[in-house]
Amino acid sequence: MRFRCLAASAALLLLPTVALAQEECPDGDWFCENPPSAGDDGAAGEAESPPPRENEAEPQKEGPPLVVYTPKGSAKPSKVIVVEKPPPKAAKPRKVREWGFNLHLSGALMGDKADEHDAEMGGLGFAFRYRPIRALAIDAGLELIGGTDWNGFERRETGFMTNCLLFFNPKDKVQVFWFGGFGLSGARVQVETDTESFEERYSYFGLQTGLGIEGRVSKKVALGADILGFVRGRSDARPNSRPEFVDEDTHQATNASGGGLIRGGVTFYW
Asked: What whole-number distance in Å separates Cα of residue 44 and Cα of residue 143?
């Protein structure tokens, strides 16, 4: 019992000492709590940065200044509305492929000796033309020629010609072109001699070439002219038994011939 009283008395005496020690707490005492370090104080003192705003709008780029011109003395606009213009659409490539129909008149060139027989032939012709690109065209058509031929006989001839045309300056309104191709033709000739009169029929295969010029009156209409030269030979069954040309002086015979045409007309394009 006495021991318990002594312990209680000692505890009552130590309480003021412990409280004083907690108030003073000199540095280095083992029972004092460690003071917070300077680093901890700095970390605790920093303010937390606010979280970024999710829907915050980006700053718009400023364009050049807008100037509105108004007549002198008139009221100033109360509001200016700016509407963004959509970008222009890409231009479609212009269609250069063309079809054409050519209609022309023709005159035959037959050499000096034709004048002795008053030879003169002419006619008309037409052709369909396909022009896939500006500088190139292909045409095919018929030539209908009639009159007095080189021998002085009455002749009617029909020819089919196919040509390739090459335009030297296809972007100009007036265009110069070269052409060349092949032709098939047939003729009916009324042969008149001192002793007999009969009709002869001939067929030919030949090549032709020439130069021409064409000027556009509008996008769909063009006027043109050309000069054509050809060489050909007979392709019928009797070229040797009845030759077409016989020299009166030397009596030499041949079935080869050549000549030319001057043509002028109009071409309609679409």
From this structure: 108
Task: Provide the whole-model pTM.
Answer: 0.64
Q: Nearest 10 degrees: CA dihedral of 59, 63, 65, 69?
A: -120
Question: For 116-132, what is the mean pLDDT?
Answer: 93
* Pair 170, 214: CB distance under 8 Å: no
For the chain, give every domain's residue range.
98-269
Which whole number is the average pLDDT over 213-235?
Answer: 96
User: Which amino acid makes up residue 217?
Assistant: V
| Rounded Cα–Cα distance for residues 88 and 118 (Å) | 68
CA distance 77 to 70: 8
Place of tokens 């309609």: 268
Q: Topology of domain 98-269, per CATH? A: Porin (2.40.160)
Percent above pLDDT 70 for the chain: 76
